[in-house]
Task: structure prediction
Amino acid sequence: MRAEIEKRVSELETEYRDGQRMLADLEAKQADLQQTVLRISGALQVLNELLAAENAS
Result:
């Protein structure tokens, strides 16, 4: 019985480490994506302002 419990503890520790690693990777990807969306938003704003200025002339 003890060997089974120790084996399960080991398996769960491995799964936990893997999950922590995946979570860190996803958080990094999320931060990168947020930066990309922010840059796109800024570019859209500038281009729309240029179009509006051109239409006003």
Remarks:
- The helical segments are 2-56.
- The two ends are 83 Å apart (CA to CA).
- The chain has one helix and no strands.
- Residues 44 and 55 are 16 Å apart (CA to CA).
